[in-house]
Amino acid sequence: MLNSSNLLSRSQQIHEAEGQLITKYENKLQGLSKDNIKEVLDEIQKDAIVFCLIRFCQQAKQVSQIIAYIWRWIEDSSNNPAQNNAIELHNYFTHPSPHRDANNTKQILASVGEHLERLFSADPRKNLQEKPTYQYKKEAELLRAVFTDYQTNQDLIFPMMDKAELGIEYPGLGYILNVDINSYQGILEDTDKNYPDLFTHCIPYPPRPQLGKATVSQAELEEWIENREEDKYYAPNCYIPTTST
After folding, report:
1. Is the pLDDT of residue 3 over 50?
2. What count of other Cβ atoms lies within 10 Å of the Cβ of residue 94?
3. How many Å separate Cα 186 from the centre of its chain?
4. In angstroms, rounded to a whole number, what is the distance separating the alpha carbons of residues 229 and 210?
5. CB 167 within 8 A of CB 198
6. In a domain, 92, yes or no
7. What is the distance between the alpha carbons of residues 142 and 216, in angstroms, rounded to a whole number?
8. What is the rounded distance in angstroms from the CA atom of residue 169 to the CA atom of residue 48?
9. How far is CA 183 from CA 38, 148, 173, in A?
10. Using the 8-state DSSP alphabet, how is residue 185 labeled?
11. At what angle do helices 81-94 and 34-73 cross, to 10 degrees?
12. Rounded CA separation 76/90 (Å)
């Protein structure tokens, strides 16, 4: 779904982003010329491909684990606080985009996928007592419920997507978030006429199957939620959604 023609169509934006990076590193690496900094960035880029792929896979794993958490607890009847967390998280996937009032005139959220962007922008490692007005406090607390080792496990990525990936730092470059309720497999789609400057990150959120041996069990969901194996990015059970390709 990702091809060179659309990448080349954004060459001007990519060039502008590169120029901003060179300026940033020029300020940090006083004494080096722009040409020398460009050489350093070229070397970093060659090595960064592997790290980018790992980051992409880890992001996918964490989104998949959030979905597994929702599915495990949303129908729980034991008055477990996890059920309330699951219901709250469920709303981010079922209402990922802007809402409008009855007259369809007032946009409460600013962009497609912004509700879901809030979840992916939250950092549970923030000291919420010192920063009680943190704009993503609610989302950070929900992520703490899913990833209980958020403070000690440095392999976990928080925020799950950064400003560049969400198209904030470099407008026109990044992802736009869509939720696909008809698939168990996510996909990164190419640009199109509707969003000519953004890749579309389709996140699968199908109806939860009936839990059991024929599909996925509660135990399997719990095992995947707690999985921290470095080389395991996709759930072994195909009924647990995979959030990237």
Report:
1. no
2. 11
3. 12
4. 27
5. yes
6. yes
7. 24
8. 19
9. 42, 28, 26
10. B
11. 120
12. 14
The residue-averaged pLDDT of 25-31 equals 70
Is residue 193 in a domain? yes
53-62, 129-138, 184-193, 217-226: the lowest-pLDDT one: 184-193
Q: How many domains does the chain have?
A: 1
Domain enclosing residue 194, as ranges = 60-99+109-225
Q: By the 8 A CB rule, do 68 and 240 touch?
A: yes
3-class DSSP state for residue 188?
strand
The pLDDT value given to residue 2: 43
**What is the pTM for the complete model shown?**
0.80
> Which residue in the block uniquely carries the two structure tokens 């976990």?
156
Q: Which residue has the tokens 């640009």?
A: 191
From 166, 160, 174, select the one nearest 14 (Cα to Cα).
174
Flag whether 2 is in a domain: no
Token code pair at residue 189: 């789609």
What pLDDT, in 10s, does the model give residues 187-238? 888 877 777 777 888 999 999 999 999 999 999 999 999 999 988 889 999 9
Q: How many CB atoms lie within 10 A of CB 144?
A: 17
